[in-house]
Amino acid sequence: MVVVAGLSGDSYDVDGEPFYAAGSRSVQYLCRDPRGQQRLYKLYRTPVTGPDAIESARQAMLSGRQTVLTAEAAGGSTGDAAEAVNWPIDLVLREGVLAGTVLPLIPMDFLQPDGRPRTLDQLWAAPGQVASYFRAGLAIRLSDIVRLLEDRQFVHGDLSAKNVLWQPAAPLAYLIDTAGLTPIDAAYDRFKDRYDLAVLVYRTLLPDAGAVGAPGAPWQPSGVPADLDPRVRALFDRAFGNGGFGRDARPSATEWSDTLRAVYLTPDGANYVPEALAVLDRHAGQPASAPATPTVAFGSPATPGSPTGWSTPQQPAAYPTAPQPNSANTALKVILGVLLVVLVIAIAVGAVVLTRKDSNKNSASGTSTTTITTTTTAPPTSTTAGFDKNTLNKQSTDKTPFTADALLPQSFTDSKGVVFTRHSFGPKDCVSSNMSQNVKTALQNNNCQQMMTGVYLDASEKILTSIEVFAFPSNTEAQTLYNGLKGQDQIWDVWCPTQGVGSSVCQANTDTLFKATYSSWGSQEYRYLYESYSLYINLAVDSSLEPNLEAPSRTILNLVGPDNYWKTR
């Protein structure tokens, strides 16, 4: 193992064997920083010697280091576009030359099962297999990321498909290969990113592979469809020089972001516009789009004071509320043991019976033994007269804000009279690396939109209860997922506070976790799916404690979701 010193003052323990050595410009090694965080060290095959290039790298590193370390200190991502860039976070200089760069690891959600990056050209290869709302949302997200770079006065220099990653669970992107980030005033071509962004947007929205031109000539579309919204057509004309526009007339990322929102999202940002999506469907050979889908996966504005670089709020969230300042963005840990979920649900005229929530018990011990129990609860508290709960069955009509306060009670009392209080919470992507593949596939295939997590502790701070609330386009997808997983072994996630009481649960070793006594339940209602999990914080192993764990894990299922929001309206 080799130790290298970074410009920041941190030292890194670098693995002796390369993690990836096939790159033409660098050899990559896994390393760890002084806090034990795993990083990637890129050792350049040819050191950077130019003072201007080294200074540009230093400025990018300072911006990236602040962004990455701030997000990690907060316990996870806020969904802000600044965190969708693989920023350099340290530089390694030797004898006045730049020998290498330290980077965060690429998030698992943007990697294929074999560990290779999921690049944007893979999405372009099968546009008809990707929903138009997803492609429109991804184009908006790409614009937001480049807008962030523009606001921070950086040029990437190589916004190509191989340097943009995406994930199938939500229209989110991640920008890599940031070694060439350059301040705008030092860039060789300050307008190159604008051209590259136009190509990314065009090919993400439309299946056109481009016109064949002279070798080395810039990529050009075969043509801009006549039925495309004129506002989008105008931007493409300027970007590709149609009508005599020059390089300096290329649209900025801000123009792309604002225009794409205006065309593909409703004015409140809550839904996509079906008529605009239908145009994309026609050119991708797809059937007409499904009803408009909320864009909950884009995140929301950062907590006041955090370094985002936005000049104005830029979130297309369905309900644009800032993250709660006390949010712990709970840490992730694989759920213990094997869970077996069985769906028992009443159906009436193709819809869930809205006065009933059937809870389905997973395992209550560290083994795969499962007890199946079904209960019927009393109807939820009455809401305002005239409120139609059938609207909760479709994302296009469900007006429940996707926030912790809307979906999760501040506190609850379980069936044994024990009071639990919410200690941490936060929105997450539906699919995470710790889930079993069948769970990931089911969530992806049924278009899961986003997950809200919450962690509750009892008054004595002895029991932790974790809850996941998954939202789908309609109750059809939610029911299909639940039926499809029936009888299968599953691994979901359990969540903990990032610090303080309860954080030790997710820090324990696997053997200890697997032995702990726990209770886990699941249920499905409206367009939502719920998964709960309770165990003692000290990871006690005692079957006699199961009733104390079953009470909160089962009770919480009857209190989360849209009923928590609408019962007081």
Keywords:
six-stranded antiparallel beta sheet, 13 helices, 23 strands, 569 residues, alpha+beta
Cα end-to-end separation: 61 Å
Secondary structure: helix percent? 10-25%
| Strands, total number | 23
User: pLDDT under 50 segments (min length 5)?
Assistant: 286-359, 361-385
How are the strands of the biggest sheet laid out side by side?
A: 15-22-23-19-18-17-16
Shape: globular
Structural class: alpha+beta
Mean pLDDT: 78
Radius of gyration: 25 Å
Biggest β-sheet description: 7 strands, antiparallel
Folded structure, characterized:
It is a single chain. The protein has 569 residues and is an alpha+beta fold. 24% of the residues lie in helices and 21% in strands. It has helices at residues 51-73, 120-124, 132-151, 192-205, 230-239, 253-264, 274-284, 404-407, 437-445, 475-484, 510-515, 546-555, 562-566; strands at residues 2-5, 11-14, 26-32, 38-48, 90-94, 97-104, 154-155, 164-167, 170-175, 182-183, 331-334, 339-340, 347-348, 351-352, 359-361, 411-413, 419-428, 450-458, 463-471, 489-490, 493-496, 518-525, 528-536. The strands form seven sheets. The chain has a seven-stranded antiparallel beta sheet with strand order 15-22-23-19-18-17-16, sandwiched between helices.
Q: What's the arrangement of secondary structure elements?
A:
Blueprint: E1 2-5, E2 11-14, E3 26-32, E4 38-48, H1 51-73, E5 90-94, E6 97-104, H2 120-124, H3 132-151, E7 154-155, E8 164-167, E9 170-175, E10 182-183, H4 192-205, H5 230-239, H6 253-264, H7 274-284, E11 331-334, E12 339-340, E13 347-348, E14 351-352, E15 359-361, H8 404-407, E16 411-413, E17 419-428, H9 437-445, E18 450-458, E19 463-471, H10 475-484, E20 489-490, E21 493-496, H11 510-515, E22 518-525, E23 528-536, H12 546-555, H13 562-566
Antiparallel strand pairs: 1-2, 2-3, 3-4, 4-6, 5-6, 7-10, 8-9, 11-21, 12-20, 13-14, 15-22, 16-17, 17-18, 18-19, 19-23, 22-23
